[in-house]
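Why should sequence recovery work at all? Because a backbone constrains its sequence more than one might expect. Tight turns favour small or flexible residues, buried strands favour hydrophobic ones, and helices have their own preferences. The token representation captures these environments compactly. In the example below, the structure is given first.
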């Protein structure tokens, strides 16, 4: 009996020990997660060689127009000792969240550089809605044609000057922005009555061009419904789930619809299955509800159905670890 009691005592001690080890491990995980966040957001990119005495070529657009690039100020460099010399004052953040953490500028177009080896490129930073969002798709008024070839979708198209300009950032840029995978993509939607809605996807990413920019994402949340996955029904998901689908354009058919081309039918470059219930690059109808041979509007099927074309859409990304001071929801889009 005494032996039995001792055994019970030993077992319960072991169980308590195991629990404390588990708790400690969790604390450790949370700690390293916080360190990762700090490293990411307080990171200050090393300056270019002080020998550089010319203005970086990236400050000028292909058409020669000057862009509103931010220069670093002497107070912004958290933890940096060496101040740049003249001619190397331009700091390119990895994305809009880094820029937001560093300078909290207003929403607008800024140059970023997600990878060190990349040339900086221009993006729209949404510094409202909690701030720090790098925008990679925008529909507003239908003046930009989204029915384009592979090369246009790869390199990007549209206008990058005014707040309401429409664009597709370009799959190659989107790939470099999303390649880390630990991010949150927010999809903002607005109908023709001004009602807003949104969908969030964790760890949204695309593969490289060799794999045709295949779409991958994890957890969905939000109020507009998980249209990328094809809604809730298994049958619908079989033909419309876009997770794992390659990107298609009118001249590159990579969909699973054997009898035709989803991109041609839907007049858009997008990830298609057979074909979709979500296509934010579709034809822009100014009427909301539309009639056509194919459901080719700007569609988020789980919110408005396939035969309603949305008025505003925005696709934007920031790190999953970004600490949002106000909380993002159906904010300004
Ligand atoms: Ca096909």
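From this structural description, the recovered sequence reads:
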């Amino acid at each position: 009996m005494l032996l039995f009691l001792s055994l019970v005592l030993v077992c319960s001690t072991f169980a308590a020990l195991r629990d404390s080890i588990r708790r400690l491990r969790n604390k450790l995980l949370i700690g390293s997660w916080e360190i990762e966040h700090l490293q990411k957001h307080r990171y200050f990119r090393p300056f270019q060689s002080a020998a550089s005495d010319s203005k970086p070529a990236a400050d000028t657009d292909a058409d020669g127009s000057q862009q509103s690039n931010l220069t670093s100020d002497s107070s912004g460099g958290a933890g940096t000792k060496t101040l740049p010399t003249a001619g190397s004052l331009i700091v390119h953040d990895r994305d809009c969240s880094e820029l937001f953490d560093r300078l909290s500028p207003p929403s607008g177009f800024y140059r970023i550089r997600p990878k060190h080896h990349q040339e900086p490129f221009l993006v729209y930073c949404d510094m409202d809605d909690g701030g720090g969002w790098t925008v990679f798709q925008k529909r507003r008024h239908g003046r930009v044609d989204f029915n384009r070839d592979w090369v246009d979708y790869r390199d990007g198209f549209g206008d990058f000057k005014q707040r309401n300009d429409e664009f597709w950032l370009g799959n190659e840029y989107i790939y470099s922005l999303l390649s880390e995978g630990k991010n949150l993509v927010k999809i903002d939607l607005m109908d023709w009555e001004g009602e807003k809605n949104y969908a969030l996807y964790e760890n949204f990413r695309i593969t490289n061009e060799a794999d045709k920019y295949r779409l991958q994402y994890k957890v969905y949340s939000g109020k507009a419904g998980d249209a990328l996955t094809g809604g809730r029904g298994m049958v619908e998901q079989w033909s419309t789930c876009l997770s794992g689908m390659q990107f298609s354009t009118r001249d590159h058919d990579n969909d699973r619809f054997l009898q035709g081309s989803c991109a041609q039918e839907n007049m858009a470059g997008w990830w298609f299955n057979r074909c979709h219930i979500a296509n934010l690059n579709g034809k822009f109808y100014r009427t909301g509800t539309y009639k056509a041979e194919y459901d080719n509007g700007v569609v988020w099927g789980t919110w408005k159905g396939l035969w309603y074309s949305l008025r505003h859409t925005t696709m934007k990304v920031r790190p999953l670890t970004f600490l949002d001071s106000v909380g993002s929801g159906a904010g300004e889009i």
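A few observations help interpret the result. The pocket of calcium ion is lined by residues 253, 255, 257-258, 260-261 (CB under 6 Å).
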